[in-house]
């Protein structure tokens, strides 16, 4: 009517479940559209293999998919304790006993040192990316920008696998430590089903319960979860200091003999598995979108914390193997049982409570970081964008958190700790290796700027670095101990890296960057591939089965959703193509 104005459209409810909220893309409008999309799979796959995102897309455009912004409420103090709370407790309490008993022996401390060095190199790569591109997606966004959509999807699948398996493994370890406090039997709180295969026959309702509680807290608010984390982590750091001191006071040097019971092979095989204990550091990078000053706070939180954590891990592992003979270490609750055996029963309960606290904070921080990964993956439409929504009141991605929570609870209910750890380590190492490759690509290649000749030279050098790293790993895995093969492979690695160093860099970090490029990223590639090669064949079988399932999902769903979104964005930006191309070439 004349003189009347239309009322503004009311905001949409956060809790909505229509088909359009899950599959808004053109390819999924009806069965006919989907058939057409599937018939174009080869063409679309070729398009997405070459498709790369941009800094601006990840920083600005994709955030609109969440409808509400995440709250910028974290400082350097929060990030330091987020890194500490996520990492310490997730591996040292859950995996050390298992690897000292089965693979590393007393030399498991060296396994932690080797994994720590490799993790530190990866930390440097993460820090540079997070400073330049402070988004919730972490490595997913970084890989999507530098290596393209398809590689980013493979990373996304492995990130979701890491989120589910990591949370489930922590839940199982939490249950073991609680059982050790109540009774010596670490499986006391589990339900045994004799008809199920080994590794899946101990049902764990306690693990499911703690996962549900931790994720509920994480959904309530970022600042609340961060505050709970750092308050409890201060207590945890004091107990860790106590463990190290008591371990050395009650040490028995004879427990360190033999130091290498399983040889160097055992040390590196253990290193590949204990790498799980360092996986939490990437959670600090995913909090960049909620950080007040990412360019200052993230390098401090990542690099500083990881140096200290590596030292703490080595000392804790050494104190354990000095207290108890490696053949007598309890696989599921190593530290609490160790104190019980040296006659300090009261210390046993203190250590168990600390372990429970450490695992709880790891679950809290992990649930925050995993949900941020999932949110950015959903923003890119690789999974339904419904999971990208941020709640207007809490400022947290509740839908993404629920997705990880439900799946991890199911996995934790059935799967044992040893099954989970090997799958997680391979997935994590694979992501870290890709991050090092992406950093090299970012420094040496800019679309529309890098001459074709330099690009060819760079790709050749990169191929030599990766190929020689695989060669060293293959020689080691074949049990050949002659020095000639290693010398030849190392020579090619050196030549590839040196050749890369002679090429002109196309991009210089604006604020903070990895030193000694390309040497540090190239070394990170080699170490991660070497640790991957040290894993058992069963881990590869499980990894490839999971990857095959991911690929099927991508070919039938993810590919078509991302193709539609990419070409819709291209159509919307056509009037500004000339300006956009000029800007891209200038970057």
From TrEMBL:
One Gene Ontology molecular-function label: amino acid transmembrane transporter activity
Keywords: Amino-acid transport, Membrane, Transmembrane, Transmembrane helix, Transport
Subcellular location: Membrane
Similarity field: Belongs to the amino acid-polyamine-organocation (APC) superfamily. Cationic amino acid transporter (CAT) (TC 2.A.3.3) family.
Lineage: Eukaryota, Viridiplantae, Streptophyta, Embryophyta, Tracheophyta
Entries under Pfam families matching the protein: AA_permease_2, AA_permease_C
Record-annotated Cationic amino acid transporter C-terminal domain positions: 512-561
Transmembrane segment boundaries: 79-97, 109-130, 150-170, 200-218, 230-249, 256-278, 298-318, 398-417, 423-446, 458-477, 483-504, 511-531, 537-556
Protein name: Cationic amino acid transporter 8
Organism: Actinidia rufa
């Amino acid at each position: 009517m004349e003189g009347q104005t239309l009322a503004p459209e009311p905001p949409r409810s956060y809790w909505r479940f229509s088909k359009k909220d899950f599959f808004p893309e053109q390819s999924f409008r009806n069965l006919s559209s989907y058939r057409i999309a599937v018939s174009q799979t080869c063409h679309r796959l070729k398009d997405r293999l070459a498709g790369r995102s941009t800094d601006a897309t990840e920083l600005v455009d994709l955030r609109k998919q969440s409808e509400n912004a995440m709250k910028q409420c974290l400082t350097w103090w929060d990030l330091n304790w987020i890194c500490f709370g996520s990492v310490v407790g997730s591996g040292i309490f859950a995996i050390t006993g298992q690897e000292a008993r089965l693979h590393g022996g007393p030399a498991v401390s060296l396994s932690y040192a080797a994994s720590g060095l490799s993790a530190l190199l990866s930390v440097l790569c993460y820090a540079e990316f997070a400073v330049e591109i402070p988004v919730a997606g972490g490595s997913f966004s970084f890989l999507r920008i530098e290596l393209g959509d398809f590689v980013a999807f493979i990373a996304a699948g492995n990130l979701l696998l890491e989120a589910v398996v990591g949370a489930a493994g922590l839940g199982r370890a939490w249950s073991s430590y609680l059982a050790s406090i109540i009774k010596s039997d670490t499986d006391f709180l589990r339900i045994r089903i004799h008809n199920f295969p080994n590794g899946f026959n101990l049902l764990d309702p306690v693990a499911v319960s703690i996962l549900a509680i931790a994720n509920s807290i994480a959904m309530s608010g970022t600042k609340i979860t961060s505050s709970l984390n750092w308050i409890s982590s201060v207590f945890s750091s004091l107990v860790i200091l106590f463990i190290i001191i008591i371990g050395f006071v009650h040490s028995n040097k004879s427990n360190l003999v033999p130091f290498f019971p399983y040889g160097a092979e055992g040390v590196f095989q253990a290193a590949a598995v204990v790498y799980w204990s360092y996986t939490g550091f990437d959670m600090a990078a995913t909090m960049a979108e909620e950080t007040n000053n990412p360019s200052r706070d993230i390098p401090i939180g990542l690099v500083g914390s990881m140096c200290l954590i590596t030292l703490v891990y080595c000392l804790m592992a050494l104190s354990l193997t000095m207290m108890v003979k490696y053949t007598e270490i309890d696989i599921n609750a190593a530290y609490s049982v160790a104190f019980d055996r040296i006659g300090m029963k009261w210390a046993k309960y203190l250590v168990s409570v600390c372990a429970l606290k450490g695992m709880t904070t790891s679950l809290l921080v992990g649930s925050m970081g995993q949900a941020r990964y999932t949110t950015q993956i959903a923003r890119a439409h690789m999974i339904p964008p419904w999971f990208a929504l941020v709640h207007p009141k809490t400022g947290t991605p509740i839908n993404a958190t629920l997705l990880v929570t439900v799946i991890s609870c199911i996995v934790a209910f059935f799967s044992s700790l040893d099954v989970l750890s090997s799958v997680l380590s391979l997935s994590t190492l694979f992501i870290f290796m890709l991050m090092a490759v992406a950093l090299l690509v970012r420094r040496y290649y800019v679309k529309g700027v890098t001459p074709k000749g330099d690009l060819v030279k760079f790709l050749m050098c990169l191929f030599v670095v990766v190929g020689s790293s695989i060669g060293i790993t293959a020689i080691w895995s074949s049990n050949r101990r002659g020095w000639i093969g290693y010398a030849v492979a190392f020579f090619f690695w050196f030549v590839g890296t040196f050749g890369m160093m002679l090429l002109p860099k196309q991009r210089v970090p604006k604020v903070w960057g990895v030193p000694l490029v390309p040497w540090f990223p190239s070394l990170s590639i080699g170490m991660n591939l070497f640790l991957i090669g040290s894993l058992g064949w069963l881990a590869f079988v499980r990894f490839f089965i999971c990857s095959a399932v991911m690929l099927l999902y991508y070919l039938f769903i993810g590919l078509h959703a991302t193709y539609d979104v990419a070409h819709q964005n291209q159509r919307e930006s056509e009037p500004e193509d000339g300006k956009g191309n000029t800007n891209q070439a200038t970057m």
